[in-house]
Amino acid sequence: MERRGRTEHETRDKNMEERERKCDSERERLPEVEEAREVQVLFQEDGIPSTSTYLRYLGTLPHLYQLTVCFRLHLLQARQEILIISYAHENYDNELYLGLSYEKQEVSVVCCQHRWSLDVGVTLRLRRWSSFCLAVDLHTRKTHVVQDGLLQGGHEGTLVAGGGEVRVAGGGTLFVGQEQDSPGGGFNEFQSLRGSVGDLRVYGEVLPLEQMKALTACQAPNALEEPLIDFSNVTGDFEVSDATLLEAPPPCDLRGEAFHVVFPEPRLFREAQQLCHVLGGAMAVPRNASENAALFQLAAATAAGCGDGTGDTLWLGVQGSPEQQAWLDVASATPVNYTNYDQRRGMTIEQPEVCVAFKGTRAVVGASRGSWVPRRCDLERCAACHFHALPIVRVRGLCAKSEFDKEYFLLAGGGEVAFSGVYYSLLAKLPPAANDSGVGDFGAWRLTRYDKPQVTATLARTSPTHYPLGLNTWTFANDVCGRGEARLRVTSCGMGEFSCDDGSCVGLTRRCDMEVNCPDGSDEAGCSVLRLPAGYNKMAPPPRPRPGSPVPVALHVTMLSVRAFDLTGFKFVCELEVRLSWHDARVTLRHLHRQETLNAVHLREEHAPWMPQMEFFGDAYTTSDVEERRSLLLARRASDPLPDDEENLWEDEVFAGSDNPLVLLNKLTVTTSCQFDLITFPFDTQTCRLGVVLLGMTKEYIALVPEDSGVTYLGKRKLLEYYLQSEKMVPYDEGKYSGQAVELTFRNLSTFYITSTYVPTFIIVVIGYLVFFFPLDDFNERIMVALTALLVEAAFFTQMSASIPQTAYLKLVDVWFVFCIISLFLVVVTVAFINWVRKCAPSILLRAKGSARRTQKEAVGARRVALAAWLNLLCRLVCPILTTLFLVFYLTMAALIEIPKLDITLVQ
């Protein structure tokens, strides 16, 4: 295991005789400590990291193949490595190492010339006692760690390959509270212990698990073997160096009970409520007589200056509700169950702003001590706050190399309130007389280090009740960051919370949600989503994801509607929402929400990122007319945020641009051309393309790729004349530029043409056919009906031709009209021919012969009539057959033309 090296300290140069003399003097100085009495050993009582405070065991250890170490620990501050035991042998400094890590929340064991190690997660808290037992069997490498009566799990350590047996070699030197980088010395103050250790025991065997649980749970275990090392005779067994021995057994503090803190500055009720809230607590509300008496004892020590001579000195977290006629706990808004009103004066609530004060001074008579009295909320009293656990505040805005701690816990006692750094710092109040920084009339808050008092940061107090919470401007001196003035944020907000400028907390999801949640509105300040690095070039595309591969820009087109489908103009008009998304690894994004619309990027010319440039094309790469309705740049949350960086003043969630894309939304009205193929009109299916091409960068650098299916249609599919049958996205590169095209397939709603064109024109044809059923001698009616049908058919054709596109080729509807017109024309010709045959056919064609009863002329006339009747009958039979054959041919031709088009569309 690597340990931080530093210059050898003076302790390493002391010889054994000096240590023995120091041990003898320590025994003479503390003759009253008896061997059989339990003691606590307090290391680094003054808080200064030091290499001179330790216990050195005067004996030695035998060879160990099993061992159990139990101890009780009360940490006042953490160190980078919290050393419990360091045992070194000859040239091996870590023959046995037992230490804790507050940052990692784990216990570490190393032994046997670095050949075996183990790390186990535990719970480390400051300013409360905790008990540990750790048992190691080096034969099986099985380990048990028990904390406060609970097994933290059975573990098997890591064994490094090497020859020889695994054991703790005997005959070495053992220290408590310092880590040896060389046998007997090489101490480092950052690898030490600040706190109290009690009931230390080292056994040469593995204790049963139940005994370890009993030892760590403050219970009497069964009969134990005699330990190799314990604290029964500290001054006799150890060399005590700059450590304080306390003749008291370590208390049992397994629950970590809640406590109160009195802040000795008079303030309004709402200010007291705010102070408790920003520190992560609530205003004190005693729940029974014993808690009320304990609060009085605490308040009496700080009563001076907390009241106005009436005897009540503290605000309680109780306020009256005139509507409910009840006294409510302001934290939970529920009626309090316990009260201790002075002479029952709290039973009626007559004013809307009535709060409860606490008589916390011994100046009042005994019966009134600790009693409650109603007071106006605009009076000033001291604040009493209730905390379920040790309040921890964090300092944001310090540079990474700053010598100050980033976390602090509340210190209260003797009427003073301060904040101790978790590791090495102290944040304390300076009175005006001692304020040598020359700022403020109310004193200042001074941040410094125990071991480096010249390194300071000072905050001038703006009022007697000013605490260094929230956002403030500090003055630095001698810090490695080298800053004069800088803003720091002191907050008690935890994970998933945002710190308002006044110190209060709101959920991090409510940051920049377009709704003010902080009392000062600071949660909606500084809501810029996009952050560009220095030297960002918006003309250059984002870095390629891989060498040689283009940057992908995902395209998705949402078609809102097709506004017009103009056959005569060979174009269509559509409403689109085009979404382009891409990753830019150069940028960072902040406070992204799951709801994409809340992540709008407000563009300014000098802060705009690179964005792809689009151009729209129709069929055959014809230019489209584009009218932009709206353009919006968003950021999409696609990953978890980066680890929190406490150098930032705000707890903003920061996201990498390489994992979270920028999204450009454009709402457009596009008019584009389409090369209609009308051969099968009105039974046609049209395929139109709307191409999107990226300009400015060739496809070697930027590639347009579809996102998911690439296109979604939301509008009505049934248009006036056509039905949108399908939509899809296909590649549509334009030369050296990358593109995609939306391919739309429209099917003609031919029912209109069937009912308005085909059926009427067919009826007219049928009417023309029906003249063959008129009497043969009624030529005028027959010819007039046929001619009228022909004229009406021609009028239909003219009208239809004016409403559909004019093409050089015949369309199916044209073929139909040609058939109908020709059919009626033939009917007219046939009727005229039949009438000619009936009246004027030459006799040579008739081959008629006379008889005795009739003349030759009569025979010719009869033959003419018969031939005309036969021809009329023939027309009656032939016309339906020819019409049927045409219909079969017509439908077959439509299918043969249309089916290949559908096949090509499906293949594409």
Explain this structure to me?
The protein is an alpha+beta fold. It has 5 domains: about 10-245, Jelly Rolls (Sandwich), CATH 2.60.120; about 260-385, Mannose-Binding Protein A, subunit A (Mannose-Binding Protein A, Chain A, Roll), CATH 3.10.100.10; about 390-520, no CATH class; about 550-635 and about 655-675 and about 685-750, Neurotransmitter-gated ion-channel ligand-binding domain (Acetylcholine Binding Protein, Chain: A); about 750-905, Up-down Bundle (Methane Monooxygenase Hydroxylase, Chain G, domain 1). The chain is built from 11 helices and 47 strands. Strands 2, 4, 5, 6, 7, 11, 12, 13 and 16 form a 9-stranded mixed beta sheet that branches. Strands 1, 3, 8, 9, 10, 14, 15 and 17 form an 8-stranded antiparallel beta sheet that branches. Strands 18, 19, 20, 21, 22, 23, 24 and 25 form an 8-stranded mixed beta sheet that branches. The longest helix has about 50 residues, at about 855-905. It is elongated and about 170 Å long. The two termini are about 65 Å apart. The model is unreliable at about 1-35 and about 900-908 (pLDDT under 50).
